[in-house]
Amino acid sequence: MSAPAATRTTVRSEAAFAAALRVLPGGVSSPVRAFRSVGGTPRFIAAGRGAWLTDVDGHDFVDLVLSWGPLILGHAHPDVIAAITATAARGTTFGAPTELETALAERIVALIPSVEMVRFTSSGTEAVMSAVRLARAATGRNGIVKFDGCYHGHADALLAGAGSGVATLGLPDSPGVTAATVADTIVVAFNDLAALEQLFAARGESIAAVLIEPVAGNMGVVPPEPGFLDGLRSLTRRHGALLVFDEVMTGFRVHPVAAQLLYGVAPDITVLGKVIGGGLPAAAYAGPRQLMERIAPAGPVYQAGTLSGNPLAMSAGLATLDALTQPGVWESAALWAARADEMFAHHAARAGVPLRVQRVGTMLTPFFSDAPVRNYADARRTDRDAYARFFHAMLDAGIYLPPSAFEAMFTSAAHGDAELARLDEALAGAWRR
Ligand code: KE4
Asked: 335 and 263, same structural domain?
């Protein structure tokens, strides 16, 4: 691996970005990739291998984004590549059932006790959107509760921001999202069980579901406070609403299987993504048979997808779960995260910089804050300019962090001592004022 250059040229990334800006809005296929919240030129990636990325200027980075979570085995894991290659040789998609979908669904059912059936989609957005539709159909109610700072994909009804006030009717969070489509979305502060209790007391009978990232990752890593998830479970059960765990990010990340097993709270519907596709497009919503058999064609709740259950993605997911469930594999990624956590804290303390590292399993966020981050309001109070400076110092030193203070970092089973040594070296000089 190349040593961190004093100044890493970005000539080819800059040229690539200029070309991309001419034909792709913002030069990217997903907003966070554009470096807008940290500034500078996004690095165009040429290759990934294990824990490392190489950009088009030939610079190597220890990757702590891992495509936003899917690559828990690291880039181009040989078992995953072999599985994809073997499947691709027999064709890439059929628009017909394959045994691969059944095999991956059986694997998920065996791992998650609250799940009896699975429906695959191609993205987390689709899976969450469909889970919401299923919850509304099953309860005959319209209201959906989400938490400020949690992200569940870009379906209109979920692009709802919080207004002022404890539990507010969602406000459109994007042009093009109409007030009507978020009129049934209620936004509450994460970890605020009292607000939920007030809300349910007032209008519990109109609420179809509470939708949550059981460990928030999209405002940075914010764990549920003790009793919060249990409280959601008993409130929703008491009022006949469903509890939907969006485990697109937390699945196989905060625990070897799922947040619901880490905290011992079983939701009615589980949404998965990222890791189950092994780096290819796949997500799923899942739950008990009596709910899932409402989905077409078994039942009337319509949902479909040309490439849902795609054979390549199923093969990559199966190979990933096969490798991940071997003894010690997940644990090695979690141990690396714990060692990185200590290293961040150690170097920040030496530099006299207030840093609060929040970590669950293999995902973590260093907040520039001296106070704990319990919710989105807390996250917004952290020093994002400091994070942006830190991000670039680390990038120049060969560490690829999320280009946003409100994201999670991810580790993999491919991260080892060499990567930790590179992190230590980078952190020693990363605290630019
Ligand atoms: P996709 O539609 O991007 O596959 O999944 C949406 C989604 C749903 N639920 C949770 C908890 C998620 O974290 C996501 C997507 N995560 C972001 C990272 N914060 C993906 C990165 C991006 O948007 O480019």
From this structure: no
